[in-house]
């Protein structure tokens, strides 16, 4: 049977009188790329924030690898293996690429700063090698010693991906990974994400660009006004009349 990595179980969330998420229930299978799409204001970001513990649902729960994570702190959920790559890269612009990628690896290992000096030196060496490996993986090894501020927008997002990868995600959540990118950068990001998919990584991706969605997704959940209006394979979603109606007249 397919292993369910993430189960959003009957989640409701209102902001005042506005129902941002109603009755949202979806499952993400291990090794799949699951896209969440929907018109502006559909509730996609709210859903992502519920999954990472930044927003508490009013009712319902999020189950990760069989464990209820609702109510846990974002850093606890992160340490369990849920890694989010943000729409606006959260990088350290004054530091080099190498330093940027090393930071989450140190943060991952609770107590690392209490290590004695000898251990510190050897672990630094190992982490540096691993950081170089992930920089190479995203195509940024040549620039490892330049400061992050000097990177193009597309490369900043690649850097953030490397910062995610060094955390060995069990589930990678990508918030509009190609937003604002040129077609060339978008296509190389698609290729990169396809490579992760071949390795069996489980991903949830929020994306407006349908070219990206249909290039990558095994399954698509469509939200509109806080409700799931379709959930299925790309072909099923493409054929859904409800989905076509939701997008009719919209900007997508
Ligand atoms: N903190 C908040 N307080 C009040 N209303 C909010 C809050 N966050 C989101 N909303 C509202 O909830 C609804 C869903 O917003 P959300 O950002 O989740 O949608 P989205 O699908 O991610 O939209 P977009 O594609 O435009 O980013 C919107 O009507 C939004 O205005």
Automatic annotation (TrEMBL):
<keyword id="KW-0067">ATP-binding</keyword>
<dbReference type="GO" id="GO:0005524">
    <property type="term" value="F:ATP binding"/>
</dbReference>
<dbReference type="InterPro" id="IPR051120">
    <property type="entry name" value="ABC_AA/LPS_Transport"/>
</dbReference>
<protein>
    <submittedName>
        <fullName>Glutamine transport ATP-binding protein GlnQ</fullName>
    </submittedName>
</protein>
<keyword id="KW-0547">Nucleotide-binding</keyword>
<dbReference type="InterPro" id="IPR032823">
    <property type="entry name" value="BCA_ABC_TP_C"/>
</dbReference>
<dbReference type="InterPro" id="IPR027417">
    <property type="entry name" value="P-loop_NTPase"/>
</dbReference>
<dbReference type="Pfam" id="PF00005">
    <property type="entry name" value="ABC_tran"/>
</dbReference>
<keyword id="KW-0813">Transport</keyword>
<dbReference type="InterPro" id="IPR003593">
    <property type="entry name" value="AAA+_ATPase"/>
</dbReference>
<feature type="domain" description="ABC transporter">
    <location>
        <begin position="6"/>
        <end position="250"/>
    </location>
</feature>
<dbReference type="Pfam" id="PF12399">
    <property type="entry name" value="BCA_ABC_TP_C"/>
</dbReference>
<dbReference type="InterPro" id="IPR003439">
    <property type="entry name" value="ABC_transporter-like_ATP-bd"/>
</dbReference>
């Amino acid at each position: 049977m397919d292993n369910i990595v993430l189960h959003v179980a009957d989640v409701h969330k209102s902001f005042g009188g506005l129902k941002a998420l109603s009755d949202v229930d979806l499952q993400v299978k291990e090794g799949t790329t699951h896209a969440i799409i929907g018109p502006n204001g559909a509730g996609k970001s709210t859903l992502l924030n519920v999954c990472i513990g930044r927003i508490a649902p009013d009712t319902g729960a999020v189950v990760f690898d069989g464990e209820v994570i609702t109510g846990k702190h974002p850093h606890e959920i992160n340490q369990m293996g849920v890694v989010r790559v943000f729409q606006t890269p959260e990088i350290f612009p004054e530091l080099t690429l190498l330093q940027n990628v090393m930071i989450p690896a140190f943060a991952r290992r609770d107590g690392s700063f209490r290590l004695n000096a000898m251990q510190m030196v050897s672990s630094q060496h190992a982490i540096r090698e691993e950081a170089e490996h992930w920089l190479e993986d995203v195509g940024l090894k040549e620039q490892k010693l330049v400061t992050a501020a000097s990177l193009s927008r597309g490369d900043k997002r690649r850097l953030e991906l490397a910062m995610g990868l060094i955390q060995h995600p069990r589930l990678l959540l990508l918030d509009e990974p190609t937003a604002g990118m040129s077609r060339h950068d978008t296509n190389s990001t698609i290729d990169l994400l396809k490579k992760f998919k071949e390795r069996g990584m489980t991903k949830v991706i929020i994306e407006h660009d349908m070219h990206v969605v249909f290039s990558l997704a095994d399954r698509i959940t469509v939200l509109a006004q806080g409700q799931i209006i379709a959930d299925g394979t790309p072909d099923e979603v493409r054929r859904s009349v409800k989905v076509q109606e939701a997008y009719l007249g919209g900007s997508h």
